[in-house]
Amino acid sequence: MLRISYEELADTLTRVLLKLKFEEARAKTCARLFTDTACDGIYSHGVNRFPRFVKMIHNGSIDVSASPVPVLRCGALERWDGKLGPGNLNAYECMGRAIELSREHGVGCVALARTNHWMRGGTYGWQAADAGVIGICWTNTMANLPAWGSTKPSVGNNPLVIAIPRPGGHVVLDMAMSQFSYGALASYRARGELLPVEGGFDAEGKLTRDPGAIEQSQRPLPVGYWKGSGLALALDMVAAMLSAGNATHQISTDALHESGLSQVFLAFDLSRFGSPDTLEETADQIIEFVQANTGSTGRIRYPGEHTLATRAENRKLGIPVDPEIWAAVLDMLGETP
């Protein structure tokens, strides 16, 4: 793996986006979101995902000039149309709007229709926590996860994010409804590693830790078995109903045309419910209790803790980038490694 500095990676992606006719400020924000994702160690949805993002711009699935607009306002709840613009920019703006609404009402909710893949969902959890609010968001996806008891994908892996602000390190849970996201499966396969636990079924219907076999069978394991597929179904319903957008069964199953998604962004302003410092102490106490009662298993990390450590390391040493991916990105600029 190459090590590319944060600044060089962000600048290079920005130059590609400018070449694709992004407005300058939007190009810089979009590139920063991709770079932040890679810097935090989520390589599958950072620079590794960038070539697919560019292909979707070329095939018309993503409109680089489109920005989300509100279409319905009802107090703390708003409905927005993403107009098929870049998914990470749409999501970033809509979480920002949910935060603004929470400042006014204590809680804010933006339901977004007709958007594209938001890349790393955790990005918008960190955005909320950095603003001092509790953030909850989720998206539906194309049908890429079989419902429990089924062999054919019929629900989405519908990532769910819950973020809690905390001075000692934000707690950010970012999880798909499959035991391993397709991005994670691809990363394990590329490294030639087995999954740490069984993550799906092979072509013969047997549970396996082989990521390639799971990708080939398209049968990842729902997290919590029937509970995971049930939660995926419920998240899809709420997102489609609140946004008046597409449900999973209405989204193309072609990965290069996975467009028109529905998403929900919630924010809760702690300052409206008492002293934020006092409320954040509750999170500290919960973490301390869990870490003090691990038995012989050693220290338990809270969600987001590893991300902070990875971020610091990659800022210092440079962000790991696959040489083939980096070559593909430079080729978009007519340059060579």
From TrEMBL:
<dbReference type="InterPro" id="IPR043144">
    <property type="entry name" value="Mal/L-sulf/L-lact_DH-like_ah"/>
</dbReference>
<keyword id="KW-0560">Oxidoreductase</keyword>
<protein>
    <submittedName>
        <fullName>3-dehydro-L-gulonate 2-dehydrogenase</fullName>
    </submittedName>
</protein>
<dbReference type="InterPro" id="IPR043143">
    <property type="entry name" value="Mal/L-sulf/L-lact_DH-like_NADP"/>
</dbReference>
<dbReference type="GO" id="GO:0016491">
    <property type="term" value="F:oxidoreductase activity"/>
</dbReference>
<dbReference type="InterPro" id="IPR003767">
    <property type="entry name" value="Malate/L-lactate_DH-like"/>
</dbReference>
<dbReference type="Pfam" id="PF02615">
    <property type="entry name" value="Ldh_2"/>
</dbReference>
<dbReference type="InterPro" id="IPR036111">
    <property type="entry name" value="Mal/L-sulfo/L-lacto_DH-like_sf"/>
</dbReference>
